[in-house]
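Researcher: We're teaching a course module on how sequence relates to structure. For the next exercise, students receive a sequence and then see the predicted structure as C-alpha cells, so they can try to spot secondary structure elements on their own. Here is the exercise chain.
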Amino acid sequence: MPQHAPATLNSFIIHVSLPALTLLYIHDLKITGDVGLMAAMAWICFGLAAGFFWLVGRWSKLPRGTVGALMLTGGLGNTSFFGLPMIEAYYGHAGIASGIVVDQLGSFLVLSTLGITVAGLYSSGRPGASEIARRIALFPPFIALVLALMLIPVEFAPWFVVLLKRLGDTLAPLALVSVGLQLRLGHLAGNTRNLAIGLGFKLLLAPLAIYLLYVQIFGAHGQGVQVTLFEAAMPPMITASIIAAEHDLDPELSTLMAAVGLMVSFVTLPAWWWVLRGV
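Model: And here is the predicted structure for the students to work with:
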C-alpha cells in the first residue's frame, strides 16, 4: 500500500463513516431509565484518564505528545464496532440498546468534545480556546451529531437508512486496516513501559473504578449496568488513536495502544464478564 494510505483511510473514516453512523444511530436512539449512568461512564473514565496520565507524565517526565496520546487512547474505549458485537456475544441482542447509549451519548460525545480539546492542547501547535472551539464545531462527526438530534422528529426514507448503514459499515474494516498498516512490532521496544501503563489503566484500573462507583457506592444493578461496566473494560478506541495520530501525538504509541489492546482484551473481557455476572 502507498505510504500515505493510512492518512487517506483516516480522513474517510472521520468525514464519511463516523458521520453516517451518527446520523443512523442517534436518530433511532431510545432513552431508558438508566441512561444517565450509561452515558456518564465514558465521561468519568475520560476524566480519570486525564488526571491519571497527567500525574504519570509529571512523575515520569513524559513528552507532551505521549501524555496526550495516553489520555486519548487510555480514556476512550472501543464501545462501538468492537464493543457492540462483544455485547451481543456475551449478553445477547437485548444488551445492544444499552451499548448504543453508552457509545453515542458517552464515548462519541466525549471524543467529539473533550477528546478534540485534549488533542488540540497537547499537539505541537498549542491552539487557543477559540481555535479548539472551532475544531469541535467543524469536527464532521460532531456536525452529524447536531443534525441527528435536530432530525429525530423526521422519519428517514428507507433508501436513506440503507445508504447510511452501508457507509457506516465501512468504519470497522477501514479502521482496522488503517491501524494494521501503521503497526510496527519493532515499535514495542521503545514503548513497552508506556504501553503497559496505558493498557493497565484502560483494561483494569478504569473498569475497576467504575465497578466500585456504580455497584459498591451507587448500588446499581441489572443488565443495563452490567453492559455499561462491560463497555468500560473495552480496549482503546481506534478512532481515538487515529485522532491522536492526526495531531502528531506519539503516533507509534497511539497505534500500539489500539492494536495490542484489542488483542489483550480477548483475555480481559471474559474475566470482566465473569466478575459482572452477579451485578
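Model: If you want an answer key for the exercise: The two ends are 47 Å apart (CA to CA). The mean pLDDT is 88.
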